[in-house]
Design brief:
By secondary structure, this protein is mainly beta. It has one helix at residues 94-97; strands at 21-24, 43-46, 53-58, 64-65, 70-76, 84-89, 92-93, 102-105, 108-111, 120-127, 141-143, 145-146, 151-157, 169-175, 179-185, 197-203. The longest helix is centred in the middle third of the chain and has 4 residues, at 94-97. The N and C termini lie far apart (106 Å).
Length: 208
């Protein structure tokens, strides 16, 4: 009398690498006769990368000035739908902090009346109920917020007394606030008795 024996064995694969293909097959062994089974037919396994998130900022210029409205939009590749979007600032999820003036609508995060504290590195990711359950996080995007707006300067040409019938040119020029940076020479390490040179450099379009 013969008996049919079906054995199940499961192996979990961890840390698989995307965009790589594998061929698997299995074979059973035991101490009694028959000691081995025939090998199974090969099974091909292809690992696909998770959809990649991309983050864009509107307006595109930098810096953003306090009081303006900023929109961040999260795009996801792969053609999948029903995504729920999550937003992060400096590695911390924004929804957990619930900051004032932040509104999430679908794939867009809007920040109204932006402040200097809103500056930082942002990224986003998507999650869904079906496979794939999540996306890759987007590359970080830096948001720079300035509390000092550029100052306009008005000039008139020609200078001095202007007479009836003269041509007059008024020019309005907007310049960025100059910034100062300090450097030291020689560079670290510094040792007792050495002479250090500090240099202050002013950058910007103003002169004088």
């Amino acid at each position: 009398m013969c008996a049919n024996l079906v054995a199940n064995y499961k192996k979990r694969l961890t840390s698989v690498i995307a965009n790589m293909g594998f061929q698997y097959w299995c074979q059973g062994q035991r101490t009694e006769r028959p000691q081995t089974s025939q090998p199974s037919a090969p099974l091909g396994v292809t690992v696909t990368a998770l959809p990649h998130a991309s983050l864009t900022v509107e307006p595109h210029w930098s810096p953003i000035y306090t009081g303006e409205t900023v929109s961040l939009r999260c795009g996801l590749s792969g053609g999948y739908t029903d995504w729920q979007y999550h937003w992060y600032k400096d590695g911390k999820r924004i929804e957990d902090a619930q900051p004032a003036g932040h509104t999430v609508t679908g794939d867009k995060l809007s920040i109204t009346a932006v402040s200097v504290s809103d500056g930082g590195k942002y990224h986003c990711e998507g999650q869904r109920a079906d496979r794939p359950l999540s996306s890759q996080r987007s590359d970080p995007v830096s948001l720079s917020v300035s509390g000092v707006r550029p100052r306009p300067f008005l000039t008139v040409s020609p200078l001095g007394q202007i007479f009836e019938g003269d041509s007059v040119t008024l020019r309005c020029e907007v310049t960025a606030r100059p910034t100062a940076t300090v450097s030291v020479s020689p560079k670290r390490p510094w040792y007792p008795g050495e002479t250090l040179t500090l240099r202050c450099q002013i950058s910007g379009s103003l002169s004088g």
